[in-house]
Design goal:
Length: 450
């Protein structure tokens, strides 16, 4: 049977009597002589007044149940807490609980410090020669610019883990994010390295020691370079890359690499858009090699915006196909790929002019996409341009690489490579047979046929 002791903090007789009545136990040691409502009625107190007296008028403690750690009495704040402690039996007082929490926190801090020392030994900070833009691949240049152009890098020279970039501006498209991060990490020449101050759970541990591997998307990277301060390494590289993107010339290897990067990024956006439109119709499918091959084939001829048009109509028709009955959702979703291929083939064979869709607000460009399409390729709207019609900016080719296709600005009468010159007014004459205004010949095609 439990007993309650009281230590009074008030000298007001009415409050002392109300406090004792509130904590007065019945003979069984578990129930109360008076309910809270009866105590308030007996002393003419409001609910708020009784609560104030219980909280500040004194301290109640259980006489018969001692703390298992220090042996002291266990304080209780109200009747509900008393009933809970009596049911538990073994009790640790609040002071001992606070002390135990402090001890656990100190042990965790020491363990984290020991792990950090192990990580520093396993992943030391390296200083290297400055990175040369000419030695980087186009993908490395774009990925590094997107990663270290993040304002968060300015504080300590460490990148934000790619998995926690904001959803409206991811570092890379979500469906290829890990693949691109892995490619950047292992690309030659090496440009980035994992920093030991990354979250310790981002590393793979074996017997309390890191095995040298880590989880992609969870770690922070630092840039190779000669500077002691890590935050001083990225500004020079960003300045050089910006100048190359803006004024050129490109390194020679970039001219052979831009088309593959364009295809990879547009394919990832088309794949994401397909998943998004299927989801709007409550359909889903696992995209395999066949799906990606169909999207690649369409993107080889049409712009990304036109492929979005095909996807929009194909998913809409697949949803209607399911609603008509006779097929399950998986069959209806899988039929979308064939619809996209058929629509692209018909448009290609008939030479149809397909309306190009804009990029939806719910599918923003990633940081890599913005850097590549806007800074590198100078495309005002990459949704409108098929890859077969894309040409690199005029400044990309140096004089020594004048044979590389570029966006040359020519006078209206100047001939383009392989194409006839634009007609001038002096070249337009009347057909000798029918009098129709024609260019460059004495007879129009119809009259020549006659």
């Amino acid at each position: 049977m439990a007993r309650i002791g009281l230590e009074h903090y008030t000298d007001v007789p009415g409050e002392v009597a109300a406090l004792e009545a509130y904590w007065l136990l019945a003979e069984d040691g578990e129930t109360w002589v008076q309910t809270v409502t009866e105590v308030r009625a007996a002393f003419g107190l409001k609910a708020q007044e009784l609560t104030r007296i219980v909280q500040s008028g004194g301290t109640a403690f259980i006489v018969d149940i001692a703390c298992t750690e220090c042996g002291g009495f266990t304080e209780v704040a109200h009747r509900t807490e008393f009933a809970s402690l009596v049911r538990q039996g073994n009790i640790v007082c609040s002071s001992c609980q606070l002390l135990a929490q402090q001890e656990r926190a100190e042990a965790e801090r020491k363990a984290a410090q020991q792990r950090r020392e192990v990580l520093l030994a396993r992943f030391p900070i390296h200083s290297t020669d400055p990175l040369a833009v000419d030695s980087l691949s186009l993908f490395q240049a774009v990925a590094l610019h997107a990663m270290f152009g993040d304002p968060a890098v300015e504080d300590a020279g460490l990148t934000t883990p790619t998995s926690i970039w904001p959803k409206d501006r991811r570092w890379a498209p979500e469906n290829i994010l890990c693949d691109l991060e892995r490619r950047l990490l292992h690309a030659e020449p090496r440009t980035v390295r994992v920093h030991p101050d990354s979250h310790q759970d981002a590393f793979v541990w074996k017997d309390d020691a890191p095995d040298g591997s880590h989880y992609l998307g969870q770690v922070s990277y630092y840039l190779y370079g000669p500077e002691e301060q890590l935050r001083a390494r990225s500004p020079h590289l960003l300045h050089t890359l910006n100048q190359t993107f803006r004024e050129g010339p490109w390194p020679s290897q970039w001219h052979d690499q831009w088309r593959d990067l364009w295809n990879e990024l547009t394919l990832s956006y088309a794949s994401t858009y397909l998943d998004m439109k299927l989801g709007e119709h409550h359909l889903e499918m696992k995209q395999g090699d066949g799906t990606l091959a169909a999207l690649k084939d369409a993107l080889a001829t049409f712009s990304l915006g036109q492929v979005f048009n095909f996807i929009y109509r194909a998913t809409k028709d697949s949803a209607a196909y399911y609603q008509r009955g006779g097929v399950n959702k998986r069959q209806a979703a899988n039929s979308t790929v064939g619809r996209i291929s058929a629509a692209a083939d018909r448009a290609r064979a008939n030479g149809w002019e397909i309306k190009s869709f804009g990029r939806p607000w719910s599918l923003p460009l990633s940081a890599i996409g913005e850097t590549f399409f806007s800074k590198v390729m100078w495309q005002a709207d990459m949704m409108l341009v098929p890859v077969r019609e894309v040409v690199v900016p005029q400044h990309a080719a140096a004089v020594a690489h004048a044979d590389v296709p570029q966006q040359a600005q020519k006078s209206p009468g100047e001939a383009s490579d392989g194409w006839p010159p634009e007609p001038s007014d002096d070249d337009i004459e009347d057909c000798g047979g029918c009098g129709r205004r024609i260019y460059g010949n004495e007879l129009c095609k119809e009259c020549q046929a006659v």
